[in-house]
Specification:
seven-stranded mixed beta sheet; 11 helices
Length: 203
């Protein structure tokens, strides 16, 4: 996840009460790419939409299996959750921090929660949960869902409450993961904890 610098995705004066009856959570398609790059550039204060597009391409964004929140009257996008098919070893400095942990995690088929943005008017009413579970069947094809959360964001506790657990930290962010139910996750996290601690691992 990246830092959310913008809390309003659609510039209008509609209230939550006016929006909610018309809000729908649906899958994105590749036709959404131009609008999503525009919103990414806006939300994260990127230099240009070209930079946002490059991020999506580099991250192998799965736009046919990501999520958007729309006003069904006109198609305006009030939120999005973009899943990207690339591993931690590519999206983080883990290989340079801990090669053993990097090698262990790289054995799992992984997907990344790249961007999760919801217009402030629609927060706190359960739409975020709808976004997370819309693609449940698709996400079950992966062994590990991972994401990075900047320390400055309040959402660190949000992900913990959803069942994500810390994989490792860097000075600016914490990386969280959730393993597919077919794995006994408690044993996996015991291994991860040992790999994070060189002395414990070598005993």
């Amino acid at each position: 996840m990246m830092i959310d610098l913008c809390n309003t995705l659609v510039d209008n004066d509609l209230t939550r009460e006016e929006l909610l009856p018309h809000i729908k959570v649906v899958s994105t398609t590749y036709k959404d790419a131009p609008k999503l790059t525009e919103l990414l550039a806006k939300c994260f204060n990127l230099p240009s939409e070209e930079v946002a597009l490059r991020q999506l391409l580099y991250s192998n964004a799965q736009l046919d299996n990501s999520v958007k929140v729309i006003d069904e009257r006109n198609g305006d996008i009030y939120g999005f959750l973009i899943f990207c098919s690339y591993p931690l070893i590519v999206g983080s400095p883990i290989e340079h921090i801990n090669k053993r942990l990097s090698g262990f995690l790289d054995a799992f088929k992984q997907i990344n929660g790249h961007s999760f943005i919801l217009d402030k008017r629609l927060r706190g009413v359960g739409i975020d949960k709808q976004m997370l579970f819309l693609q449940k069947e698709y996400l079950e094809k992966y062994d590990l869902i991972w994401l990075a959360v900047e320390y400055s964001l309040k959402t660190n506790n949000y992900w913990k409450r959803l069942g994500f657990k810390e994989l490792f930290k860097i000075p600016d962010a914490t990386f969280y993961g959730m393993f597919n139910g077919k794995f006994h996750s408690e044993n996996i996290y015991i291994i991860i904890d040992r790999l994070k601690n060189h002395e414990d691992y070598n005993k």
